[in-house]
Design goal:
The protein is of the alpha+beta class. Helices cover about 45% and strands about 10% of the residues. It has helices at about 10-20, 35-45, 50-60, 65-75, 95, 100-110, 150-160, and strands at about 85-90, 120-125, 140, 145. The radius of gyration is 18 Å and the shape is elongated.
Length: about 160
């Protein structure tokens, strides 16, 4: 379970990790390390807890607002605690041409949740591209990639999440 509060151990891990990250950047360009620093925070907490985002900004010599802007720009970052299973369904043109939008609707019905809704168990999202245009339609469950989706294949994948 990932909790919102930063523990002293979390803070120490974040400070130590960011110190290592910053070794790869010029001293006057610390804020350029924003993406790996936010990624580290997410690895530690499971999502970008507000207190941690402020700490990242402080360590990188920038504002909490700038860190929040970056965090909310990229789909890979969670600014709220995600459900246990983050399900990304690509609906970009190649996937759409092969039935991705119908597949997304099918998953909404199957899971009883709308795309864009974050629950305790599922966070179902429509996404732009998962880099599998030749094997469309595709989806990702957490870090597991699935291609050539059919309703039967989706049923099998979702059954394993129960």
């Amino acid at each position: 379970m990932h909790h919102a509060a930063m523990t002293p151990d979390d803070t120490a891990r974040l400070e130590s990790g960011i110190a290592k990250i910053l070794q790869r950047y010029p001293a006057d360009r610390k804020s350029a390390a924003m993406l790996p620093a936010l990624r580290l925070l997410q690895e530690i907490k499971g999502w970008l807890v507000p207190e941690g985002v402020k700490k990242v900004a402080q360590l990188l010599g920038t504002t909490p607002e700038r860190a929040h802007e970056v965090a909310t720009f990229y789909i890979m970052f969670f600014t709220e605690k995600p459900g246990r299973y983050v399900i990304d369904v690509c609906t970009n043109l190649p996937c759409a041409l092969r039935g991705a939008e119908g597949m997304l609707k099918y998953m909404e019905t199957k899971l009883g949740t709308l795309a864009g809704t974050n629950g305790d168990k599922y966070f179902l999202r429509e996404t732009e591209c998962l880099a599998s245009c030749g094997t469309a339609p595709c989806m990702q469950v957490n870090e597991d990639h699935h291609e050539n989706l059919t309703k039967a294949k989706v049923d099998s994948i979702l059954e394993k999440l129960q």
